[in-house]
């Protein structure tokens, strides 16, 4: 069985990768399985941040590493919170982030509440060989928290194609349509060439 390291500290992301990669015979390790590494996500784009995470971890661990940088892009907010999604209202506080999003969209009418989730996955090998893949899913921002599953902004994200909030989907349903699922399927198409 292959093992791949995903340079993430986010348990929600880790669980989604584990569920999607297990059927392919790939076991997932995360940063939680190693001694702490300091990573400064100071890039201006999703790809820059994913590259920083993957390169830092690959260098430190001397292993091939994948990293995921993702976020919510809201049209009425000119793309915010975007690359700042994790620290929109505070450091990794999902409840505070969601409350700030609702407040900033309070006066925005339904038809203007369009948004998408974006994921960039970057794979980096210790020799520096890099592989990049992207995914997105389109939707609307709801007016109240809806659903119990998932993490982050999921309870406020209405998935247009399913007519449900992201947090009302099972993990399997989310992986089928999500930004992360799409990015990972695109990544896996090129995985063998990158890995070998
Ligand atoms: O499927 C998702 N469903 C809901 N919210 C999501 C999702 N995907 C990203 N998000 C939001 C919340 C997260 O806090 C931020 C990502 O920030 P991002 O830096 O990529 O991840 P993170 O800091 O939580 O973990 P890490 O950098 O260790 O991988 O965007
Ligand atoms: Mg982060």
Short description:
This protein is of the alpha/beta class. It has six helices and seven strands.
Provide structural commentary:
The chain is of the alpha/beta class. The protein has one domain (2-195): Maf protein (Alpha-Beta Complex), CATH 3.90.950. The chain has helices at residues 11-21, 46-61, 94-104, 171-177, 179-189, 191-195, and strands at residues 2-6, 26-30, 65-74, 114-124, 130-141, 157-159, 164-165. It has a seven-stranded mixed sheet with strand order 2-1-3-4-5-6-7. A hairpin with a 5-residue loop joins strand 4 and strand 5. Helix 4 (171-177) crosses helix 5. The model has no long low-confidence stretch (mean pLDDT 97). The chain binds 2'-deoxyinosine 5'-triphosphate and magnesium ion. The site of magnesium ion has 2 residues, from loops.
Q: What is the arithmetic mean of pLDDT?
A: 97
Radius of gyration: 17 Å
Instruction: Please count the helical segments.
Output: 6
Cofactors and ligands present? 2'-deoxyinosine 5'-triphosphate, magnesium ion
Q: How many domain units? A: 1
What is the topological layout?
Blueprint: E1 2-6, H1 11-21, E2 26-30, H2 46-61, E3 65-74, H3 94-104, E4 114-124, E5 130-141, E6 157-159, E7 164-165, H4 171-177, H5 179-189, H6 191-195
Parallel strand pairs: 1-2, 1-3
Antiparallel strand pairs: 3-4, 4-5, 5-6, 6-7
Helix pairs in contact: 4-5
GO molecular function: dITP diphosphatase activity; ITP diphosphatase activity; metal ion binding; nucleotide binding; ribonucleoside triphosphate phosphatase activity; XTP diphosphatase activity
Family: Belongs to the HAM1 NTPase family.
Active site: 69
């Amino acid at each position: 069985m292959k093992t791949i390291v995903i340079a993430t500290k986010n348990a929600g992301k880790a669980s989604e990768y584990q569920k999607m990669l297990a059927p392919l015979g790939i076991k997932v390790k995360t940063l939680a399985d190693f001694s702490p590494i300091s990573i400064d996500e100071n890039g201006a784009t999703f790809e820059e941040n994913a590259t920083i995470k993957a390169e830092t971890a690959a260098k430190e661990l001397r292993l091939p590493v994948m990293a995921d940088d993702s976020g919510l892009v809201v049209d009425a907010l000119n793309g915010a919170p975007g690359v700042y999604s994790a620290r929109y209202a505070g450091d990794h506080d999902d409840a505070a982030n969601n409350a700030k999003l609702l407040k900033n969209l309070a006066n925005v009418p339904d038809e203007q509440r369009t948004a998408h989730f974006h994921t960039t996955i970057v794979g980096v090998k210790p020799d520096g060989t890099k592989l990049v893949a992207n995914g997105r899913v389109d939707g609307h921002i709801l007016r109240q928290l809806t659903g119990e599953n998932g993490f982050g902004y999921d309870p406020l994200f209405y998935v247009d194609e399913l007519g449900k909030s992201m947090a009302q989907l099972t993990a399997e349903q989310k992986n089928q349509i999500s930004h992360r699922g799409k990015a990972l399927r695109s990544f896996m198409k090129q995985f063998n060439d990158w890995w070998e």
